[in-house]
Amino acid sequence: MRIRFWPEKKQRIRTAGGKWPGIRLFWLELQKLCRIPALHVFVMLCIGFNLLLVTGSVYGEDEIACVRQARELAGDRMGADFSKKAAALPDSVQKEWLLNQTKDAADILEGYDTGRTAQQIIKNFRIEGWAAEALQWKYQRQSSRIRALIRRNASMDVGAAGMTTDLFDALFTKLCRAILAEGILLAVFTALYLCRREYMERTWQTVYTTKHGRRIQREKGFAGLLYAAAAYGMLAVVSCLIFAKAWQLGRIWDTDMATQFYGIHYMGMELPFVPWADFQMHSYLAAVLSLGLVLVVIFYMLGHLAGLMAKNTYTAFLTVLILAALRFEVVLLAGDAGKWGIYEAALWSPVMLWWSQPLWFSDMGIHAVVPWQECAVGAFCLLLSGVLLALGYGYFCRKDLV
Prior knowledge:
The protein is built from 15 helices and two strands. By secondary structure, the chain is an all-alpha fold. About 35% of the residues are buried.
């Protein structure tokens, strides 16, 4: 039986059919990635490594359990009322430890002088010129945040008492940095594999002489980006669930990030951790992993760009690795030489953005000269990487591949 269509229906079918080749190629490339055992094995190895990282750092379970009970019974803000209610806990060594940690607690942000902090940093690191002026301006802006935190009694949050620093270091300094590094490596491997697959299998002449031709790199790019983002998301969620199961924190997840039990230590200075927004432990973790996703996308685009420009996969990977290492060298040499303009400029790179992750969303000391600099760096690198990838794609579609 012959099926007849109205003219409008025929036009819609022809219009949709013109889009199907690109969509079909996108799904085919995504399916290829999902069938690669090596990528799945890499993700499983990362999860296994994170499992060992988490379980190897867990200790003080009795202290954590005591603080968890105290937060449920006495609340989360230290003071006379907290100590009185916490004293009703069953007698134990951990109870005495907690009461000693929290007795006579005072708001450390009361009287905190941001101008003095700026001068101390400038003096200790011998910073001069516009960098010193920018730091002074940044810490002037921090004064309003200090006042807001004082009104909320943020530094009086009991957190995990004396275990807070160890707990935060285990989560934010070790686990989150590992998750981001693994996501970055996975993104680069995915980009390079998809970009150079035809060359590795010696089918590039057949593929690039089709009607779609070299434009297939566009579909490859989107497919790899979706895969890398999804793999990073799964890796982050599973790793954080392992952390939550291992530590059993309960209401400690509500700890204010400005608690006095957590601070920044460098060059003989002990500074409070002052975030630019009201973050609790769980919301801060979500913010870190969200900015981490941006970082993964940036490295994916850089990896894809390297794959388009280089002659083989190994050269492309070494190019990305060497450029990342050079950033560290520039920062170290500029800091040692006192070239603070070069030092601050070198911080506006994805590599240094990853390295400064434990200080994200705070004043970041000498690692930032403006508030929310990590977000500005992420947006700048994302835009620049996108522009460079678009230019690289255009060049790849025109260059001689022989």
